[in-house]
Amino acid sequence: MSSPQFPASATPSSEIATLPKPRADAASLPAQDISAEVLIEKYAKGEELDIETLRLRVARALAQAEAPEQRAQWEAKFVEAQRRGFVPAGRIMSAAGTELAATLINCFVQPVGDSIASLEEGHPGIYTALTEAAETMRRGGGVGYDFSRIRPKGAWVGATRSSASGPVSYMRVFDRSCETVESAGARRGAQMGVLRCDHPDIEEFIHAKDQGDLKNFNISVGVTDVFMQAVEAGGEVELVHKAEPGPAQREGGAYQRKDGLWVYRRVPARALWDQVMRSTYDHAEPGVLFLDRINADNNLHYCESISATNPCAEQPLPPYGCCCLGSIDLTRFVEHAFEDQAVFDEAGFAEVCKLAARMLDNVLDVTPWPLPAQANEARNKRRVGLGFTGLGDALVMLNLRYDTEAARNMARRISEVMRNAAYEASADLAAERGAFPLFNADLYLSGGSFASRLPQGLKDKIRAQGLRNSHLLSIAPTGTISLAFADNASNGIEPAFSWFYTRKKRMPDGGFKEYAVEDHAWRLFRHLYGADTPLTPAFVTALELSAADHASMVAAVAPYIDTSISKTVNVPADYPYADFQDLYTQAWKSGLKGLATYRPNSVLGSILSVEPTAVPEPLRPVTDVDGSNQRLRVERLPKAVMASLRWPSRPELPGGNPAWSYMIRHPHGDFALFVGELPAEGPDAGLFGKNLPFEVWVNGAEQPRGLSAVAKTLSMDLRTNDAAWLKLKLDALTTVAEERAFEMPMPPGGEPRLFPGVVAATAAVIRWRCEQLGALQEGGPTPVIDAMFSREEPRTGTSGTLAWAVDVDNPATGEQFTLTLKEVSLPTPEGGQVTRPCAMGFSGNYPKALDGMARLLSLDMRVMDPAWIGMKLRKLLNVGEPLGHFMAPVPNLSGERRQQVWPSTVAYVARLIIHRYAMLGVLDEQGLPLVEMGLLQAPIISDKAAAATVRPQAGKPCPECGNSTMIHKDGCDFCTACGYVGQCG
User: Fold this and answer.
1) How far is CA 839 from CA 456, 819, 860, 913, in A?
2) pLDDT at position 310 over 50
3) What integer pLDDT is reported at residue 267 of this predicted model?
4) Contact indicator for 62, 70 with CB cutoff of 8 Å
5) β-strand 191-196 against 187-188: which pairing, if any?
6) Which one-letter DSSP state was computed for residue 42?
């Protein structure tokens, strides 16, 4: 064992010494409920209910590759290796030892040629490759592709005397196939698409996902050293292909080089590179792969060429290559965690590494293979990928801050120990079982590859004994396996993204169950030292670090990893482009094989960086000037009871809650309405002797657009404990008219009743259920009603009044309409006047369900405390809509001109209204009141909630909760609203 050193940049021992005496032992740390839940949902099979039973199944399955008389011995060792921290990859944990015809391999690379179906130079035709990829995904494997062989758009197709459609068009075919094929274990296939930087269609590829296309792909540009050198020198690059250009392209200057390749055009390298950087800054893609570095470092440089990676990019692979993965939890090897004598158990770690290498080698012999070509490729080279997880947490436990040189030195040392142990184990396996068939000691240990830089003692051993596996090391994302098997230790090489968050998991009845999800190091610290002890300086999260700090850790570890490292550089939304733009260039200079980044962004990820221009001063509150420029005025406000409005957040219900449902049948289809209820023993139940309704939502593909926003804002009204206010809201919806009236059966007997539209019909069903539960019973408190400055909408005289109007244009849905806010002047306590919106409406082409939302929000606008309407509007900002996202300017008072992709029309309308309140000096641009009135009670935040660092961030729609809040974190999809983790690891 060796103890880490603590230079000045690390946590000083004097600070560590101030920690109180541990109040508990680390071994007594209880398991998290979320770990058991993920284990059962994702990995357990049959009657398996605990982790030990699952580990035994996996160990027994992998021991089948051993000699029959030794299987029991190795089975025991394999179980022990798992107990000590080795976690085979998700496919192994879920399928090994089962009757599933599913592969134990996480990912593959699939070759794609240029023909439709013919085999060319070992590359199958496009549709043959598509079939092979579909079979691979059906069996549980993700697939990466290099599409560079496909001829450019407009290139000549001699056989049909036509023009080619280009690789991006065929990627769309692969995208739809991936969307359709559900792979083994009920997980969708993952895909990586690569195109070389010198392909003539590279610009179309860079921007292929800007408008939401290729949703089932990660994409990366394959970059060459020649290209990067041209970027550095400010030179041009040739965009080339072997396919003959079409007539128009030849007329445009395309020509053939002496080597036979056609030059379609020349472009400034720096301008093309800037497109890559702008796109990844705005949309989080594409990533980059440094192809020359990948191939120069390849141990098999003498017999293969690599041009693509698997979907999470931790394994550059040749055609039909696979990644057989497993990770070791580093936190298991930290002794005396958080104390000044904290050390890392190198000897114990090395022992587990050697066992893990043997287990992964066995996987290659016991797994079913989707394709014979994949089995043959694995048999000849026997690639495996041993890595680690929990690095960020282990460093915290060793009192090393992630962004310090001391932490990088420790990561280097851990990686070196893993490298040496894995190669020693593979050499010993070669002596026992034989080397991989393509092993050639002279070629393998020469040429500047990774193997050529191994310590001399290891090289001597390999030359004498051979090597069982061509490649041995890979650091992969470990999202779900970390949750299930490693107590939510930090993912892979990453620092912790957050210390605590709440996982809201959708249940079969449509409701949600909530789990506390705590980072392992954080919860261990709290377990040992209590909730009141300040965290040590080593506790630092991913978003607190610079992009350069993230990349520096990869650079520190990369020299010890023979394949690659999955690393997503997460930066905050306001991270300056000036600091971001050189990140990939520095990665290339540091010798990395690739890099990916994620900056929080909405559905398409964009905050476009453009130069701000001057705008007029924002409008200020005004009073009556003359008859032609007058505004509604309220002379005197009613006196409201202070602190009377309850903050209507959803209560925490760890045990779940019942929900009543009803099928709404309307002329354009059916959808389900749900009313969530608090059981009688709940904190607010018993008021009427029955369950208490506290939320409503709708579900179904045929619900009218905009209706979910009506349900969302009405849910907050259900939680106000004001029956008169709820009745007022439901009354406002009864006459919302749409295209045509229709009859619909009503509960309880199904008698038909005529309604002017779906909003009115939905409100009537909600009213019926509320009446059944006594939620509309009169005589109770009316805190919200009492806080209104006008129950009715203020009416104008014949001379009219001033109003604020703004146009909304959503090209994704074809909507063009005007939002209008009627405004009123209110007196202030200081004797002045303030202008406030008092009603809203729409005109033009818009979803008619928005009329219902307008009526509800108009009532909310007339509550005296603007914190109320601000709260309502903020909750609408993340309302997503399938295929309804669009790009529009971001309203702001600073004068900065930028655009953003909005998840729905509703979200944009809410943002515009908030902006108007900000123009009037009532709310800020985040929707929070500039002056507290004391009417609305602030939410009560528990100590645990205060520790949470995950806040909703704009992103892709989440398949679990439906919010457009799913980001890319640590190589995995992660929803910042409900905590959903995509299938990875």
Assistant:
1) 79, 11, 9, 11
2) yes
3) 96
4) no
5) unpaired
6) I
pLDDT band of residue 831 (cuts 50, 70, 90) is low
Distance CA 417, CA 346 (A): 7
Closest CA to 622 of 360, 928, 870, 921: 921
The DSSP-derived string for 444-508 is HT-TT-TGGGS-HHHHHHHHHH--S-S--B-B---HHHHHHHSTTPPPTTPPPS-SEEEEEEEPT
Running DSSP on this structure, what letter comes out for residue 563? S
Average pLDDT over residues 965-974: 79
Per-residue pLDDT for 779 more than 60?
yes
Extract the tokens encoding 720: 């106000």
Bridge partners (DSSP) listed for residue 840: 821
pLDDT (0 to 100) of residue 764: 96
The residues, ordered by sequence, that sit 6+ positions from 889 with a Cβ below 8 Å of its Cβ are: 897, 898, 899, 900
The predicted pLDDT at position 690 comes to 67
| Phi/psi at 405 (5° precision) | -65, -35
The total of other beta-carbon atoms located within 10 Å of residue 122's CB is 10
| Helix (H/G/I), strand (E/B), else coil: 182 | strand
- pLDDT, one tens digit per residue, over 347-401 is 999 999 999 999 999 999 999 999 999 999 999 999 999 999 999 999 999 999 9
pLDDT tens digits, one per residue of 879-892: 888 788 888 888 87
CA-to-CA distance for 276 and 279, rounded, in angstroms? 5
Write down the pTM of the prediction: 0.68
User: Coil, strand or helix: which one is 583?
Assistant: helix
Query: Model confidence over 40-53: pLDDT tens digits?
Result: 988 999 889 899 99
pLDDT higher than 80, residue 945: no
Contact 719, 694 (CB under 8 A): yes
Identify the burial level of 331 via C-beta atoms within 10 angstroms of its C-beta, where 0-12 means exposed, 13-18 middle and 19 or more buried. Answer: buried
Q: Reduced to 3 states, what is the DSSP secondary structure of residue 598?
A: strand
CA distances from 51 to 351, 483, 513 (A): 22, 12, 22
- 660: which residues sit within 8 A by CB, 6+ positions away? 674, 675, 677, 769
Looking at residue 642, its pLDDT comes to 39
Please give the Cα distance from 149 to 160 (Å, whole number): 19
Residue 365 corresponds to which tokens in the numbers above?
Answer: 């012999």
Q: What is the 3-state secondary structure (H, E, C) of 220-249?
A: EEEECHHHHHHHHHCCEEEEEECCCCCHHH
- Terminal CA-CA length for the chain: 29
Task: Find the length of the chain.
Answer: 985
DSSP 378-446: HHHH---EEEEE-HHHHHHHTT--TTSHHHHHHHHHHHHHHHHHHHHHHHHHHHHH---TT--HHHHT-
Catalytic machinery residues: 310, 312, 314
pLDDT value for 4: 41
What pLDDT, on a 0 to 100 scale, did the predictor assign at position 469? Answer: 98
Which tokens belong to 340? 């000044």
Cis? peptide before 286, omega within 30° of 0: yes
Average model confidence (pLDDT) across the chain = 86
Task: Pull the structure tokens for residue 569.
Answer: 């550089």
Of 47, 89, 67, 221, nearest in space to 147 by CA: 221
What is the rounded CA–CA span in Å between residue 850 and residue 672?
19
Residue closest to 145 by CA, chosen among 359, 379, 317, 398: 317
Q: How many CA atoms lie within 13 A of 567 on its CB side?
A: 32
Q: Determine the average pLDDT of the residues in 543-561.
A: 91
Q: Is the pLDDT of residue 154 over 80?
A: yes
Two structure tokens written together for 318:
């040749």
